[in-house]
Amino acid sequence: MPDRELPEDVRRRLSAALESGAPLITPMPSQARFAVPTGAMPAPRWRLRALTVAVAVAGIVVVALAGPPQTREWVVQSVNGISKQVGIPAGATTPSPKDESATSGQKEPKVTTRSPEAPEATAEPAEPQSSPTPELSDGGGGSDGGDDHSPGPSPSSGD
Amino acid sequence: MGAEGEATSTALQPGNRDDFDRLYRENYPRLLRTMYAITGDAAAAEDCVQEAFVKAWRAWPNFRPERAPEGWIHQIAVNTAISYRRRAKLRSVGEILRRIGRPSAGRDPGDAATTSDVIKALAALPPRVAADFVLRYHHGYNNREIARLEGVSERTVGARLAQARDELSRRLGPDWRGELPTSGNAGVHLPRERSGVSDA
Question: Alpha carbon A38 to chain centroid distance?
Fold first, then answer.
């Protein structure tokens, strides 16, 4: 590709346009913009870090409160750990829902494990004659049979 | 980027404030003219150059010494100017919409090569094309030096210059298409920025 040269008058016109339009006043380096904001730079970084931490903590809290019961204990423990590190008094508010949820989380499985056992218990005694009210007998049998049903308590005590 | 630029690139140490000040002093004039050609606005050009040096200062500790610092700061400045032009286009959308439907003012052939028209025509070029044109025909760099400065091939530089000459000749007149060199470097002139002397 041939490299063309501009005529001298065109070059002069170009230089005149550039130099007259943007007069060259070079600021001293100490007056340049890069020398000024160096002290102000940490502020946005701190803001960014604080925002990141806040979002992360909020996400963990949401997961702790709305997550599945299996992971809830672990997440709540981690939230408590973070709250201790941050310095928020974790005594009154945060542990109580955790404990409640933890205890309820322990109780709930027992109830759910018992309910499938109940039909077996009703099936074992072989009360087909009372078939018209099997469910009622299940519920009543669960409560009533708690005393005399040995298969019900035995697995829980085994655990 | 002649001997001066190479000497600078070997002497500068990343993270050193004095070296960065030197980089600033030596490159500010060239960058200001180049940014002016890209943006078409003196204030915007100053803003872009200052912003480019702010970005460069932040990255200065991680600068790799094997790279020419003039090319590095040039790239940062051109990218800054490209971003500026994008933002300016977005801002001017409303203005363009307002102008739609109005008859355009007729051009006076006598004003074809006034200063503002030259700058307007340069600013209408793609940013890298305008930058190469100014480096070549105002700052006096040759194609090889521009290619090294920008990290592109000489063929790319030649194509950009040809594109610039075509566009400018369409807007400003056939003289801007240029002429094939006849003998020697009769038309070469080095502006003051190139020789390291600023008129500040």
Answer: 36
